[in-house]
User: Fold this.
Amino acid sequence: MLFLVLLRLAIGWQFVYEGLWKLNTFSTAKPWTSAGYLRNARGPLRGFYREMTGDPDDLHWLDYDQVAARLDAYRDAFVIQHPDLTEAQKLRLSDMLDGPVQFSAPLAKLPDGMKFTPQLEKVIHYDADNKLLVVDGKQHLIPKEKAELERIAKKDTSAKPADVQRFLKALDSVYRQSAKLSDKERLAVLLKIDPERVGIVYRDEKTKEVVEQRKGKITQYKEMLARHEDELPRAHEAFEHHHLDVQWGEIQKLRAELVNPIRSLESDFKQEARKLLTPEQLTRGPVPEPLSEQQRIDHATIWALLLIGGLLMVGLATRFSAIAAAILLLSFYLAIPPWPGVEELIETAGPEHSFIINKNLIEVVALLAIAAMPTGQWFGVDRLFAGLVGKRRSANVPPPSHS
Assistant:
């Protein structure tokens, strides 16, 4: 009885401490997450555990529509969080994300005799009413077009030199403005345009048939993932597992190369948005964001450890808490089971190695033994409740009648 109670207290203490340690990391620069453990799950339930993270391979970061929608949602939440934003602040926020409608610079007049070619007029024009040199916000002025405009302005000798200089100054201003891409345009470059990332297709100028197609890194990443998932169940020998581990390392390196710039872009947008706020507006705190699937799993794990561990320590609902603890540990065991043909991860195995039975499974058996015994009745809150219930029942029993 003594050692079963001590075993229950020890396991409860372990659960509580693990939960508190993980919870404490949320106030540090590197909060705990089960993402790595779940993403690297092995065995027959690998797919189930990986899907618990919501997006185990970060593929949503490589989808323009999903990332753009998340940026739009943050902007909308930002405006709701700060209802006192000025129109200038709202305009600046939209310009950061979508880009301005136009880029402009003041210009009293165009140099005499200067005319834009039809091709240039699609990008730049002179607004005589407002005396502005204007570039379309979605077009952007490229170096070749700027050089062409400079040539046109300088070739007409009838124009006054002062007018030419003013035009060149305004041209340089709108060129520098239009050189800055909005966050969505930068996102489009990363996920739609950059040939190194998205690939490139060469077509015949006349027939428009595909002559050559080069895969980008995003396509390579997806193909490597599919190949790894296909080969993993068929790996039986040690050298095959080693090959797959090397392959997995390359996949993770490529994932970081592709995803990190997108993450940084989103983070930069949020930081720049906060810089628009006044000190008074900043007091409202950051914009609340919905928890991701991974964050929900992490929080659920922490609170399960704390709750179950606390119940085991105080001996309350002991049978239920012992079974719940066994189920939780069994889920840890099945994520990377030490079964034949299932390689144990080096980072999770530590200095010890297991075969079929590991520490998690041993604790599962111990917890089931605790659940089979009334340890809470021996020492715990369950004993107090049992005593109260017993007294009530005794009070409700009528005394025996004497005839």
Q: What stands out?
A: The chain is about 60% helix and 5% strand. The chain has a mean pLDDT of 89.
